[in-house]
Amino acid sequence: MDLAELAASVQNKSASEGVWDDALNGKTENVLCYGSELDNKGYHDRLILGEYFPTQDAHCILISEFLLYEMGIIDDDDIGQVLGKRIRLEQYATWRPPPNMLLTLLGSNQSDVTPEESMALRKVVDNLRSAIPMIPNLTEEERRLVNKVLEKNTSDSSPARDVPVSAEFTIVGVIREVTKEDMESIWGLGRMARDADVIMPLGTAEELAFQSTYTSKNGVDAVTVLVDDEDNLRDVTQDLKDMGFQASSLVEVYETVMRNIVLLSLATGFIAGIAMFVAALGITNTMLMSVMERTHEIGIMKAVGARDGHIQFMFLVEGALIGIVGGCLGLLCGWVTSFPGDLVAKRIMQQQTGSPVDGSLFAFPIWLTLGVPLFACVVTTIASVYPARRAAKVDPITALRHE
Q: How far apart are CA 368 and CA 365, in angstroms?
């Protein structure tokens, strides 16, 4: 289990407040941070200015172009000037409800709250408990109940929740907003990765996350466990549940898909077996007709000294050659038709999933390329046994008289 993945999960669930210097208008804004690997293709493609992180533990960040727009930095020249500037991020260990939710509780319909108003509302929320005794309409019993409810949310670890972890970072690049093409090219692009305002290296995200007293004491809320093989998925899920963790996996979906694949393979195998049996009957019938048509030639060969084994071997070789040639032609036809079939299948899958499909859906491994002609040769040779034995038993005198 990679510790960096744990840090990324903590960062995804954290609300961070960045304090900007004078070059960035000296404003404070709530931002969403995300930890990224160095080889993240999605962010590399979205980079419009500057450069990517040099190392996993560098104290530098990428900033969203939209966040700069919200901060009043619109012109291209002004955007270019943010590179190399330093900002301070205050990261809270756990998610805290936005202060403007207080407006909803108070019945206000205002949704556009400035950062200054947000900070003022935050102070109201933080001092709400101390103001309870001054509320005139509450009885002593109601005050006791309210304090009891608030005490449930302020455990021993609550001071750690209120103390942010501060760190300064250098802006090294600017990323654009996510486009529809980005969503289609990167499968599984999550909301956190898509909507993040600030991107930092994964190692730095780990360092920042575990500087928090609350996180270092209580750990993380969730982790992602990767199994080395899909066959071990159920056992690993059950082991995690036995350890007392809540485990959620796609094991049921995986087993259902695998069961359907097995049933589909059996069905297609049964159909293929019937097709091979019919083909074998056709080859046997063709070889029998060939024996009847060449009865006179068989008689001549026996008259000049050919033995029964020679005649039988000749027809077996003929059947084997039919199988090899037929198998190679069938393989060639399958390879040629795979190109239009691949295009049609990819288009259908892309329309249903909304994501492009890379690579070909048709595979021609070496074992299949060599196995198909060999298998066809075996089938046609077996199908030629009876016609060959019948040709070998032809009476030469009767065969010479045959027209």
A: 5
Same domain, 87 and 159: yes
Question: Could you tell me if 280 and 323 are in contact, meaning their C-beta atoms sit under 8 angstroms apart?
Answer: no
Are 255 and 324 contained in the same domain?
yes
Distance, in Å, from the CA atom of 87 to the CA atom of 167, rounded to the nearest integer, reads 8
- Residue 336 pLDDT class (50, 70, 90 cuts): very high
Residue-wise pLDDT tens digits, 58-117: 889 999 888 888 878 878 778 888 888 888 887 765 555 556 666 666 666 665 666 667
What total number of domains does the chain contain? 2
Task: Using CB atoms within 10 Å of the CB of residue 229, give its burial: 0 to 12 exposed, 13 to 18 middle, 19+ buried.
Answer: exposed
- How is the chain split among helix, strand and coil, in percent rounded to 5? 60, 10, 30
Domain that holds residue 7: 3-242
Six-digit token string for 58: 């560098």
357-384 b/e with 16+ CB inside 10 Å = b?
eeeeeeeeeeeeeeebbeebbebbbbbb
Do 255 and 216 lie in a common domain? Answer: no
Q: Which of 219, 242, 265 is the last residue of a domain?
A: 242
Residue 255 and residue 140 in one domain: no
CA distances from 153 to 149, 150, 217, 364, 368 (A): 7, 5, 17, 61, 64
Helix (H) or strand (E) holding 5: helix 3-12
Residue closest to 28 by CA, chosen among 88, 74, 82, 69: 88
pLDDT for res 266: 92
DSSP calls for 201-239 = EHHHHHHHHTTSHHHHHH--S------SSGGGHHHHHHH
Write the CB contacts of 68 (distance below 8 Å, at least 6 apart in sequence). Answer: 74, 79, 82, 174
- Distance from C-alpha of 238 to C-alpha of 204, rounded to nearest angstrom: 33
**Nearest residue to 287 via CA among 163, 391, 359:** 391
pTM: 0.48
The distance of Cα 213 from the centroid of its chain, to the nearest Å, equals 34
Reading the block at residue 254, the tokens are 């995986």
DSSP 286: H
DSSP state of 232: G
Q: How many CB atoms lie within 10 A of CB 93?
A: 27
> What Rg, from alpha-carbon coordinates, does the chain have?
37
What is d(CA 8, CA 2) in angstroms, rounded to the nearest whole number? 10
